[in-house]
Design a protein that fits this description.
Helices cover about 80% and strands about 0% of the residues. The chain is an all-alpha fold. Helix 1 runs antiparallel to helix 2. It starts with 6 loop residues before the first helix and ends with a helix.
Length: about 60
């Protein structure tokens, strides 16, 4: 069974990624992987938010 998406955890991970990317000691190869992970998280967050909006819109109708 797929793990339920946790928006708060995704946001926290994105904040950690941002700190790592901003750190001058982070290697370029690591930044590449961090950017790829952040894209995955952003896509998941957008999908989650669209789903929530659709639920809210259906309630308002």
């Amino acid at each position: 069974m797929a793990e339920k998406f946790d928006y708060s955890k995704a946001i926290a991970e994105l904040e950690e990624i941002a700190k790592k990317v901003e750190n001058p000691e982070t290697k370029l190869d690591d930044i590449d992987a961090l950017v790829a992970r952040s894209k995955e998280l952003l896509d998941q967050c957008r999908k989650y938010l669209r789903t929530v909006k659709e639920k809210i819109d259906s309630i308002e109708e």
